[in-house]
Design goal:
This protein is an alpha/beta fold and 139 residues long. Helices cover 43% and strands 21% of the residues. The longest helix is centred in the middle third of the chain and has 23 residues, at 51-73. The structure holds adenosine-5'-triphosphate (ATP) and magnesium ion.
């Protein structure tokens, strides 16, 4: 049923738990896992001197999030791919899931956002509503 799984990681405690579910399901279903992280869009700053530096810094920070997730998985029997994308997170996650023909997206209910009172974050809310495949939100 699940052959390709996206785990969306933002470095939060919730996304760590999402990763644990991803690992378990990938083992059970012999699925491949795509670790996806989206860093903020910067092209509106095009032309500024500091532009290149800012993008490089954001990209490096994003790669660190992916590296940590990959390390957390450790040695696994299933294939693991990484996608480091730029843009609004929900759109990028939905898009990569569609392009890769993914059949499950796993993510946290919440992320790094500060508004703890809310039931779920804006990224998980948007992905849940617009994804073309099942979405597992992990508390
Ligand atoms: P908000 O961002 O709306 O203030 P929040 O940070 O608490 O709220 P979300 O951002 O919706 O909540 O995070 C929910 C889940 O979405 C995270 O646990 C993670 O799995 C995924 N996610 C959030 N941001 C990103 C991102 N930039 N790249 C990849 N996955 C992300
Ligand atoms: Mg967030």
């Amino acid at each position: 049923m699940f052959k390709k799984i996206v785990v969306a990681v933002d470095g939060s405690e919730h996304s760590h738990r999402a990763l644990e579910y991803g690992q378990d399901l990938a083992n059970r279903y012999e699925a491949a896992v795509w670790l996806v992280h989206v860093f903020p869009h910067t092209s509106d700053l095009l032309g500024y001197d500091e532009y290149e530096k800012l993008v490089a810094r954001r990209e490096a920070a994003g790669q660190t999030v992916l590296d940590e997730a990959r390390q957390t998985l450790g040695t696994v029997r299933f294939p693991v791919y990484e996608e480091l994308l730029e843009g609004p997170p929900a759109e990028a996650i939905i898009n990569v899931a569609e392009v890769r023909g993914v059949d499950l997206i796993i993510m946290g209910t919440r992320g790094l956002g500060a508004l703890q009172g809310l039931l779920m974050g804006s990224v998980s809310h948007k992905v849940m509503h617009h994804a073309h495949c099942p979405v597992l939100l992990v508390r």
